[in-house]
Amino acid sequence: MQGQVIWEVLVIQIISIIVLISLIIFFLRLSSSMRLEKRISKFAISSVKDTEKSYFDSLYDYLWRIIRAFSKILKHSVVIRNYGKRYEKHITYDEKEFKSGIDYVSMKILLALLFTFLNIITIMFQYINLNPLSLLVTFILGFYLPDIGLNIQFMKKRKQVADDLLKAIIIMNNAFKSGRNIMQAIEIVRDELDGPISDEFQKIYLDITYGLSIEVVFNRFYERVKLEDAKYITSSLSLLNKTGGNIVKVFSMIEKSFFDKKKLQNELNSLTASSIFVFRLLISLPFIFAVIILLLNPSYFKPLYTTTIGYIVLVLIIVIYISYVLIIKKLLKVELQ
Question: What's this model's pTM, rounded to 2 decimal places?
Answer without folding.
Answer: 0.64
